[in-house]
Amino acid sequence: MSGSVGNGGVDLSGTQNGSGPGSGSGNAGSGNTGAGSGNSGNGAGGGPGSGTIPKPPPPPRDGYTVTMPGEELPTAVTLADIRSFVPHAAVARMEPNGWMVIGLHTNFYAVGSQHIVDGELLGRPASVRFTPSAYHWAYGDGSTANLSTKGSTWAAQRIAEFDPTPTSHIFRAAGTYTITLTVDVGAEYRFDGGGWIPIAGTLPVAANQLVATAGRADTVLVGRDCLAHPSGPGC
């Protein structure tokens, strides 16, 4: 007659064989209890202190931001961020001043240059540098001009009055015209006197309006100039 208990076999003759956690066996009939033996493996691996120590980041240079591992990159500054920095408007001018001769060139030009405005940006003291880049004229007669130069006076260009210039315009009909100028301005910013960092896009800045009258001019020969003889023909 035989039976089994657990993982071991029971012999009715008094002998019990069993397996324990180790590899030993025991004989119940002889009164000896087998003690199992086993080996516990020790794994080898790297702990928290193992590995290569990262090198520190290089010092920042003007115009650059050093970001430590795990930090988020800073958000780029936009034109909306500098809305509290107001650029100076250019001044629109013309010659002759306030009037035009039909069929002849009228010279238009802008007065204004690169400039710096100080203030606070993202909670820090900062400077913003504005630079004019394009000039958009609307002459009031349906004509427009988009130019990269601001122009200058006839005298500065050393040419005669009514000579053509890169910024001049000819009016073809008599009337009163309103001339407008819009200047595209680029922007850069910096903190603590560092390098200038450009901001994407440009700002349109309106200049003053000019109102002028176009008419015809006739040449009349006189015997004396009008200062000496103001009642003479053509004076």
How is the secondary structure organized here?
Layout: E1 2-5, E2 8-11, E3 16-17, E4 91-95, E5 99-101, E6 105-111, E7 115-121, E8 124-138, E9 144-147, H1 154-157, E10 168-170, E11 175-191, E12 197-206, E13 210-215
Parallel strand pairs: 5-13
Antiparallel strand pairs: 1-2, 2-3, 4-6, 6-10, 7-8, 8-9, 8-11, 11-12, 11-13
Radius of gyration over C-alpha positions, nearest whole angstrom: 46 Å
CATH class type of the domain at 79-215: Mainly Beta
Overall pLDDT metric: 78
Largest sheet: 7 strands, mixed
Query: Per the principal axes of the C-alpha atoms, what is the gross shape?
Result: elongated
Measured as a percent range, the helix fraction is under 10%
The fraction of residues in strands falls at 35-45%
N-to-C terminal Cα separation, in Å? 152 Å
Structural class from helices and strands? mainly beta
| H/E element order | EEEEEEEEEHEEEE
Number of strands: 13
CATH architecture of the domain at 79-215: Sandwich
CATH superfamily of the domain at 79-215: Immunoglobulins
Low-confidence stretches: 1-50, 61-73
> Count of DSSP helices?
1
CATH-derived topology of the domain at 79-215: Immunoglobulin-like
Protein name: PKD domain-containing protein
InterPro entries: Ig-like_fold, PKD_dom, PKD_dom_sf
Pfam family, one: PKD
What does this structure look like?
With 235 residues, the protein is mainly beta. It has one helix at 154-157; strands at residues 2-5, 8-11, 16-17, 91-95, 99-101, 105-111, 115-121, 124-138, 144-147, 168-170, 175-191, 197-206, 210-215. The chain has a domain at 79-215: Immunoglobulin-like, CATH 2.60.40.10. The longest helix has 4 residues, at 154-157. It contains one helix and 13 strands; from the N terminus they run βββββββββαββββ. The strands form three sheets. Strands 5, 7, 8, 9, 11, 12 and 13 form a seven-stranded mixed beta sheet that branches. It is elongated. Strand 2 (8-11) and strand 3 (16-17) form a beta hairpin.
